[in-house]
Amino acid sequence: MSTRYEFRVLGPLEVLRDGWPVRIDAAKVRLLLAALLAEANQVVTVETLVNRLWGENPPGRARNTLQNYVLRLRRALGCPVGGAPVFTRPHGYVIETAPDALDLHRFTTLVRQGRTALAEGAPARAAPLLGEALGLWRGDPLSDLPAHLVRGVVAALDEQRLDALELRIDADLALGRAADVLPELRGLIGEYPLREHFWAQRMLALFHCGRQGEALESYREVTALLADELGVAPGSGLRQVHGRLLAAAPDLTGAREARPAAPPGDGELPVEMTTFVGREAQVAQVRRLLGTARLVTLTGVGGVGKTRLALRAAAEAAPSFADGVRLADLAPLSDADLLDRAVSEALGLRDHSARPVADAIADHLRDRRLLLVLDNCEHLVEQVAGLVLRLARAAPGLRVLATSRQRLGTPGEHVLTVPPLTLPAVEGTAGGTPARREPAVGAAGDLVGDLVGDLAGEVAGEVAVMGAGAADPTGVPTPAETDDPLLRSEAVRLLLDRAAGSAPAFRLTARNRRAVAQLCLRLDGIPLAIELAAVRLSAMTAEEILERLDDRFRLLSAPRPRTSARGHHTLRGIVDWSYDLCTEGERLLWNRLSVFSGGFDLEAAETVCAGEGVPREDVLDLLAGLVDKSIVAVNSSGDRARYSLLETIRQYGRQRLQEEDGTTLLRVRHSGFYRATAVRAGEEWCGPREVDWLVRLRTDLPNLRTALDHCASRPDLAGDGLEIAVNLARTRCWFFSSTLGEGRHWLERLLAAEEPSVTTRTPTLIAGALAMKAWIALCQGDNPAAETFLAECRAVARELPDGPSAAPVTYIEGAHAMLVRGDPASSALLAEARDRFRAAGQAGDAHMATMLWAMAEAFFGTRASASSARDVYVAEAEASGAEWAGTWAQWCSGLVELRHGEARRALTPLRRALARQQAIGDSWGPVWGLETLAWAVAATGDGSRAAWLLGAAHRMRRDTGVALIGLRPFHEAHLAAERRVRASLGAEAYAAAWSRGASGEDAPAP
Question: Which of 608, 686, 758, 885 would disulfide-bridge 877, Cβ 3.0–4.6 Å?
Fold first, then answer.
C-alpha cells in the first residue's frame, strides 16, 4: 500500500503521513517544504529555492547546501525508495501531491467552482462551495515561518483568500443575506480600507437593509479616503453602484453585477474554442505578477503559446479589475502609425476630435482600473514601448499584459519567458533517459547521501546528489486523474486532446507509447507544432510522423483557419516570421549556431561563428539580440552563461546554412574548437581547475560527440578526432560522466577511421590511444579485450623513441599487472611510468601513475611501503589543488589504513572521500568508495551494515556496467569481506541485508 501524504499551508505548515502528524523541526527544511508546496506539482528551480531560503544573501555553495536540505526533508517525511513525493528534476525539484492532498489545491478548486456557479446565476450553489473553501483556512498562511522570506508567497495566498471572500459575500447578497454580511464587511473595510469591492458590497448591503442614507454616506467616505491616500477617484464599479443607488435601480442585487459590461466587438477576450492544457504554474505566476507589476511581457519562441497563456491569465485575473480587461491584437497591424488607433478601438473609444489618439486613450484610462492585453508586439516593439510608457504614467490603475518574441524594454517591465510544454521521459515510461537531456539524479545519489549522513557536521552543505543510478522521469506532473507517468507530460496531453478532435480513431497504445513520447520531445514541446502533428494523425501513425520529422517544416504545414492577416499557422510560417524580424547579422549567426548540439558558451560562438560577415567583436551583441527575440535561450545559473536552441529553431538554421553552402566550413570550425578544448583540458588536468574542466566537458558532451562523429566521417580529420578522444580519456571525462563504454567506442572507431593515404596521426598519438583503450577495458573488467589492446600497444610502441618502455606503455603494463594478474611487480612498473611521465611534463598522467602505484603498495606492499606511497600521493594531490585527485587521495588513505592499520580508522577518510566525490558530481569514484567502505565496515564487525553496503555497491556496479571479477585485488578483497560477513550473520540474514542494499532500501542505523 502506497504512503499517503497530506499538506496544509493555509495556516501554520502541517504535514500528515498516513493520517499521522510529521514533525519537522529544522526551520530551513520547513521553509524548503513551504517553497515546494507553494508551487506543488511544478518544478521549482534551484535559483528560486535558494532565493526563498536565503533571500539576497545566500551562503557559499548554496546549491550543495540546498541539496543537503532536500535530503533531510526526504528523511523527515519518511520518503520511500525513489524520494516520492519529493523528486529531483533537471533545473530543480518538485513535490508531487494528489489533487486532494494539499489544502491550497482544494481551496482553489472550490473557489473556481464557486466562481463558475456565481457567473451562471446560481448563488445558492456558489455560497456553500465558497464557504467550504474559506473554512480550510486555519489562520495566517505559513505563520510559523520567517515572514521576510515568505512575504511574496503569503501575499499571493492572502490575495486569493480576499478574492474568495468577495465572491462569497456576493453570493450571500444575491441570496438576500445583506444583514448577515454587514458586520463582517465593517471589519473587512477596517482591515483593507482601499479595497473598493468591499465598499461596494457594504453599500449594497446597507441599501437592501433599508439604510439608503448610510449607503450613500459610505460612498462619500470612500471617495474622500481614495483622494487622500492615493489621489485617485473611485473606480467605475463603485461609481456605477453609487449611480444606481441614487436611482434606486430595481436590479441592484450584487456588486459584481454592477460592473459595466465591456462594449461588444473588438477588444473583448475571445471565447476559448479548444481546451486549455497544462500551464497551471505559468497562469498563476502571471496573475501574481499582475498584482505587483505595471507591465508584464510574455516572451518566447514562436508557437510556444504566449497568446493562449495571456488570454487565460487575463480571463482569470478579470475580477481583480473593476473596469475589465481589453484585448488589442496587433498581429494584423503593418503600419506603426496606426498603433494608437488600434488600441483605441480595442478600448471601445469613439473619439472624433482632432487631438492625438494617444491623448484620448490616456484620458480614457486615467481613473480606471483596467487590464490591457497587447498581443503580438514583436514587429512594433519601439512604438508599443513608447505608448505603454505614456499610458502607464497617465493611468495609475492600468496594468498591461503584452506578448512579444522580444521584450519591450520599458522601465518597470517584468519579463516572463514562456517555456515549452513539459516533456515525457524518452522511453515514454516511468524510467528512461531524462527528456531534457540534462544530467539527472536519482536513487543512487540518495543512497550515497544516506551513507555520508554521519558526516553532516563536518561537510554540512557540501553533500550533493550524484547521478549514477536510474534517473527520475522528467517533466512536471500535474494533478492528473491518471497515474500513467506518460500523461504527466503537458505535451503528450495536448497531443492526445487535439488528436481526439482531428483524428478520432487515434488511441494511445502500448505499441505507440514510445513514438508518442519521442514525437513530443522532437517537437520541443511547442504547442503549435504538436497541434499540427495531431492533425497529421488523421492520415499517419505517430511512428510515420516521427520517421519524417527531419523535414518537419514541410510535414507540419496542414491547412489551418486563418484568423489574421499574417496567418502564420504553419510551423514554417511561424519561424519564417521570427527570421524576418532579425537583422542580417542575427540571421547569419542563427544559421551558424545550428552546428552546435545541446548548448554552447560565448567563447564557442565567437570562435566557430565569427568571420564572413560576422566580426568576432559583434558576436556578443548579435547573440544578445537573438536572446531578446526568443530565438536563443540563455541559462546564467553557472559561472559561464550557456546558450541553446530548440531543435525546431536549430533545424531551421541548419537548412538556411545548407542553402548558403556554409555547412562544411562551420563543421570543420566546430570540430577544431572542441579539439582545442579537449587538448586544453588534458594540459590543465590534475590542477586547481580540474573539477571545472570535468564539469565543462560533461556539459559539452553533445558537442564533443558531434565533433567526434564528424571527424570519424572524414579520413583527413581522423587524427583530430583521435586527439579529442584521447584527451577525454586522459582527463577521465568518461569516468566522471559514467560513460566508459562510449569512450572505448570512440577510440575504436577513430583508430579504424583513417586511410593510410591521408594519415594525420603520429605513432605517439596512436600509442596513447591504444593505451587509453586498454585502460578503459581494464576498468570495465574486460580482461580478454584488455590483453588484445595491450598487445597492439606493444606493437606500435616499437616505433616510438623510447620503444616498449615509453611512459604510456609502461603505465598500462603496470596497471594490467596489478588489476589482472595481482602481481606485486606492478608497483615497480607504475613507479617507473610515474617518473617517465613527470620527465615528459605530463603532470596529469604522472598523477594517475602515482595513484595506481600507491594503490598497488596498499594491496601488495608492507605497512611501511604502503604508508610511504600514500604520503607521497596525498602530498602531490594537495599540492596540485585538484579536487577530484584529492578525493582519491582520501580514498587511498582509507585503503591503506584498512589493510595495514585499524579498520575503524579507515571509515572516516572513506566516508569523506564519498562526500567530496558526491559534492562534485563524480559518477565513478563512489562505485569504488562504496565497495571499499563495505570492506572496512565488515572488518569492524558490523555485519548487517556491511551486508547492506555490499548489496548497495553491487547495485552501483550494475548501474555503471563494471565487472568486479576482472579486477583481481578488488575481487579478492570483496570475497574476503563477503566470507567474513556471511560467517557473522548466517546465510539467511546476509541475503536479506544484501537484498535491502541492492534494492535501495534504507540502510540500517550505524
Answer: 885
Region 756-784 average pLDDT: 80
State residue 446's pLDDT score.
46
Three-state DSSP at 564 gives coil
Quote the pTM value: 0.63
Residues facing residue 327 across a β-bridge:
373
Q: Is 400 left (phi over 0), alpha (psi -120 to 50) or beta?
A: beta
* Structure-block grid coordinates of residue 694: 570535468
Centroid of chain to Cα 679: 31
Is the confidence at residue 212, as pLDDT, over 90?
A: no
The answer to whether 372 and 345 are in contact (CB under 8 A) is no
Q: What is the pLDDT of residues 140-184, one digit of tens each?
A: 998 888 887 787 788 878 888 998 999 999 999 998 898 999 999
CB atoms within 10 A of CB 213: 10
User: Which residues contact residue 582 at a Cβ distance below 8 angstroms, ignoring those fewer than 6 apart?
Assistant: 590, 625, 626, 629, 631
User: What is the spatial distance between Cα 818 and Cα 811, in angstroms, rounded to a whole number?
Assistant: 11
Work out the mean pLDDT of the chain and round it to a whole number.
83
Report residue 726: phi and psi, to 5°: -65, -45
Sign (positive or negative) of CA dihedral 522, 525, 527, 531 = positive
Q: Report residue 296: phi and psi, to 5°.
A: -120, 125
Can you say how many angstroms the Cα of residue 744 is from the centroid of all Cα atoms in its chain?
31
Q: What is the pLDDT of residue 252?
A: 59
DSSP string, 945-963: HHHHHHHHHHHHHHHHT--
Nearest-angstrom CA–CA distance, 577 and 936: 65
Distance between CA atoms of residues 169 and 186, nearest Å: 13
Rg (CA), the chain: 33
**With contact defined as beta carbons under 8 Å apart, do 648 and 523 qualify?**
yes
Q: Which of 73-82, 119-128, 442-451, 535-544 has the lowest mean pLDDT?
A: 442-451
Alpha helix stretches (DSSP H) within 366-489: 381-394, 443-451
For residue 525, what pLDDT is reported? 86
Instruction: Please classify residue 131 by burial: count the beta carbons closer than 10 Å to its beta carbon, then call 0-12 exposed, 13-18 middle and 19+ buried.
Output: middle
* Cell representation of residue 133: 473553501
The model's confidence at residue 254, banded by pLDDT at 50, 70 and 90, is low
Annotate 374-395 with b (16+ C-beta within 10 A) or e (fewer).
bbbbbbbbebbbebbbebbebb
Q: Which residue has the cell 491518471?
A: 482
- Strands of 758-893, DSSP E: none
Could you tell me which of 429, 530, 444 has the C-alpha nearest to residue 474? 429
64, three cell numbers: 550543495
Q: Are residues 206 and 212 in contact, defined by beta-carbon separation less than 8 angstroms?
A: yes
At 352 the pLDDT is 63
Query: Reduced to 3 states, what is the DSSP secondary structure of residue 194?
Result: coil
**Position 1002 confidence tier, pLDDT thresholds 50, 70, 90:** low
Q: Which three cell numbers stand for residue 582?
A: 532579425
Paired residues of 374 in beta bridges: 328, 402
Instruction: Measure CA of the first residue to CA of the last residue in the chain; give whole Å.
Output: 28
Instruction: Please compute the mean of the pLDDT values over residues 55-76 and round it to a whole number.
Output: 84
Torsion over CA: 479, 480, 482, 485 (sign):
negative
Q: Which residue has the higher pLDDT, 983 or 42?
A: 983
Question: Could you count the other beta carbons within 10 Å of the beta carbon of residue 703?
Answer: 22
How many other C-beta atoms can be found within 10 angstroms of the C-beta atom of residue 673?
21
Distance, CA of 694 to CA of 518 (rounded, Å): 30
